[in-house]
Amino acid sequence: MNVVRWWWGLVLAFGLLALMRFFLPLPFANEVMIFAIYVMGCNFLLGQVGFISFGQPAYLAVGAYAAAFYLYYVGSNAYVGILLGIVAGIVVSLVIGPLFVKLRSDYFALVNLALAVIIFYLMQKVLAEVTHGDNGLWFLTNLAATPVLDLSRPDQFFIFSFLVAFALWALYKYLDDSIFGACCLAAKINEDKLTFLGYSNFNIRLAAFVIANTTTALAGAMYAVYLGFVSPEITSPARAADPVVVTILGGVGTLYGPIVGSVVYTGMKDLISKAVGNWELVIGFVLVVIMLGGEKGIWGSLQPRLQQVFARAGIFGRTGGDS
Amino acid sequence: MTDPHLLVSGIIFGLSMGSIFFLMAIGLSLCFGLMRVISLDQLLYYAVGAYITYSISLATGNLWLGVLGGVAVGALAGFAAERLIYLRIYERDITFSMITSFGVLIGGVGIIKFVWGLVPRPVPMPIASQLDIFGTEVPVYRLVVVAIALLVYVGIWLFLNRTIIGKAIRAGIEDVEHVEGLGINVYRLFSLTFIIAGGLSGLAGGLHAPLIMVDPQMGLEVLAFAFMIVIIGGLGSIKGTLVSAFLVGQVVSLGSLVYAPLAQMAPFAIMLLILLIKPTGLYGSLLLKR
Lengths: 323, 290
Known about the structure:
- The complex is a heterodimer of chains A (323) and B (290).
- Chain A contains 14 helices and 2 strands; from the N terminus they run H-H-H-H-H-H-E-H-H-H-H-E-H-H-H-H.
- Chain A is mainly α.
- Chain B starts with a helix and ends in a 13-residue tail after the last helix.
- Chain B is globular.
- Chain B has a two-stranded antiparallel ribbon with strand order 1-4. In chain B, strands 2-3 form a two-stranded antiparallel sheet.
């Protein structure tokens, strides 16, 4: 495989993102990066494996609370907190994965929603002594300066989240090209044939489930570190569809969809809630229009045109079916 | 065990909760059964029904007029959504309708916020009197709600089993192509189902309004419950919806007597359990698996 061809899109996209840092306010840039990581997991589940999940906030909360517990009660190193978030994500999805991945896609969505609700009440009421209920855990002052990149400072946190997102992108791009990615797609399109080829449907789905939800848990841990605060609000059922909405907004199953989606979504949310104070109306309307318009999302509709432009300019010859 | 007074009022509370849940979930269930769409916007009509009830009962002082208005507006909204949106997406994948209708729900919440504002509104109770059951005072209104829900169930049952249109709808739930082959216009049936579903969701909202504060997020708050009830009962089954609605109502109500925080979680735990044992829900038939 041509190395340049493999990397150029990635570098271009992240070059633009790095540029964004200089023109847009820092909190916005940080939020976009974390949100993009959050959506990546959902995008992989929905686009490659065909699982729609209304319960991503559950895994977000798992990561966030794992990091928060450590930072509030035990230590002060943000890196360890994030690492613990990842570990918690892997453990939780390995435990519940075998039960969940056997379900049909629509039931899967609802069972995940149920999980998000359970975790919400668990954190809000049942474990209130540990999680401080609705007041949440505040540990911003507990964060010690970390070596290399000081995660307690927003500007350095941006560099960190930028690097993490870049690494994850490379990982997902690699997965898309690998046999595993092909198997995931096959599990989405025709599971019988996949079994016929000698692959275990269950194993493929479980692996995809764990990868996607660990990504989400990582995003949760990063939220916790960035905000220095975690409350049950993070897994509130009312926000359960956010990642799905953004995934579709960006374009399902496309590699750059999550980043386009989260830039647009976060931007819209900021601008509209400032201007109108009623962003639900707009986001609902946009969602319906996109769905009726053909489900491709922003990036999904842009991509063929961009390819045409590039092909005409001769920068990057016949791309064919390669995305 | 617990105080018998608490137990009686708990059971009545659970029954009335279950009735509301039933009316709310029946639309979802019908729409899935016949058209294979997951119509989350039913919860919007529930909220709209509650708000219309609030406005009309504020203007006229009569709650029942308000509830009627809620039913009418719910049915109209359901019809409009069907004509404008669902007509274009019947052919698509089921998750597709789930996401689209979620867009409608969110957009509708935005409209509600725009029209009625953010502040929760109280709706006065129409029947203040109490009834004596085993020495426990029980609000009559809750019993009326239960009675209405049971009437609706009987009505739907009669409609589906005794009228020719109802029979066509039931046949459509089994096999749409065959019904079309008989020369019946299925799309008219679809519209009718949406009108019924929207009206019943509006009814649920109108009846629920005096028991809670009406606020813009109310549809989203019960979203998880409505879903859960349909899933436990089995998608597309009316009887299953009734049984699971009352089951969940009792679990929520009696569970809160035992240990309050658990009450909200317990139904979801039950749903997980039932789905893992019987993935089609209590009364869902394998026929519906598509």
